[in-house]
């Protein structure tokens, strides 16, 4: 087929993800940068909490881009391969954890990237963002 | 709504666009670079004909990205404004002609960018690519 | 003095600005990209509304950076000078309108950048964001 | 709160830090590049001593940016993680030693980055810069 019908995260959906992530980071007491992108890897929403690292404003976006690009969590490839991809793509591939694809009913509709905490903290916050959207949709159904 | 249903140009559709553009350029005797992107601005297919300018491999992609980004043909803004946008986006905006959004039944599903000829040649080739897809779909219906 | 006491827009304040801007853009029916930065020019919050131009995700941030950098609205210098500054700063200076510093009680605490509409639309949305914050502070006092 | 009151290193303060660092480097006989940034990571003062390495003009600034961004000395993370962050931030994160945050009375007000010597020399010079400011403030009190 020449054209596919696909599901695309909206700005409204992205804000639900962002809110869920920020709420979890707040509860954890860990300031974070959170970015949400659509299926094309373009930024929908972003927030840097007070006290989050400055450089994480860039890595959060890069992690989200990588998660949608690879349709997989970031930070899971062997290091040498991951670095090689980062170099080969002129830094359009994050090698570190904190990016997760956002899946709804078996379809990936966008991705979230979180940075400023450690790996476990970043992943927990990203996962909380995704769950917030899944919960919001379940309650609407 | 949290998720939107959208139409997205497939690789197969992009190849029909590319074929139509290359066929026209061949008939015109003007070697061209042709790029086709999806709605997120990511490259689907590309071809540089023998003899096409090397730098046009970059401008063709940039024109396609700009056409989908702005959902409008490239090269139509007043020069000062267009240059200003190019600078403000760190060169993610082509100011010159040759990029066209690909519209099907009222929905924009991707874009084509053509470079290496003059403005008229580039636009004619881009338009031929789009028409090839529209014709293919009409014949399938 | 070796150290100055300054006022800095918080993430909470930035969200009030963003909300005011998005509300105005929604009322105008013009999809926009909106970015808010702190006094150091680092991104605090961002939103791209459904339908806003992809390249404006970059120019909105650049406009906000430029407004805080110059402590003045963007797009007001003579074109040649503005382009010269953009080139001299490796594109860390937006030459086009849509960026405004955020002033509270005579002190600039951050900036907002808006892109995807025309100049007047971008400026109106940016101004609405600033007014939302000023109103919120007035009501808290 | 919408606005936070924060302490920000002034140009005068930065010059005290720079002077202290350069004096130490001179006493050590090691030519250095020294950069001092504010809390937003923007350059306040810089000096490249005669004979210091040319590339260190860039790494000294990057180290200072990284130290304020992470609010921690540079060069302390495991190599793989540090390299991963550098790649994910498009080289806005220095992985090597020589950057230190400048802390005054429990508040971080800026950062210093030093490059051209070895790790120990860079750190010693950076520390001397910070101590010069702390001493100047103690004498003023």
UniProtKB/TrEMBL annotation, chains A, B, C, D:
> What name goes with this protein?
Heme-binding protein
Which organism does this record belong to? Stenomitos frigidus AS-A4
Read off the lineage from the record.
Bacteria, Bacillati, Cyanobacteriota, Cyanophyceae, Leptolyngbyales
Q: Which PANTHER family match?
A: PROTEIN GLCG, SLR1406 PROTEIN
Q: Pfam families per the record?
A: HbpS-like
What superkingdom does the record give? Bacteria
């Amino acid at each position: 087929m020449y054209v596919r019908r696909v599901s695309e995260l909206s700005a409204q959906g992205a804000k639900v993800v962002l809110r869920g992530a920020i709420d979890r980071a707040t509860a954890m007491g860990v300031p974070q940068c959170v970015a949400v992108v659509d299926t094309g890897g373009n930024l929908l929403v972003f927030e840097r909490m007070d006290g989050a690292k400055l450089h994480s404003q860039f890595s959060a976006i890069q992690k989200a881009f990588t998660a949608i690009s690879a349709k997989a969590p970031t930070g899971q490839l062997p290091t040498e391969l991951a670095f090689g991809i980062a170099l080969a793509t002129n830094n359009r591939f994050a090698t570190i954890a904190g990016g997760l694809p956002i899946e709804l009913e078996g379809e990936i509709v966008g991705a979230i990237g979180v940075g400023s905490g450690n790996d476990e903290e970043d992943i927990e916050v990203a996962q909380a963002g995704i769950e917030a959207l899944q919960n919001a949709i379940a309650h609407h159904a």
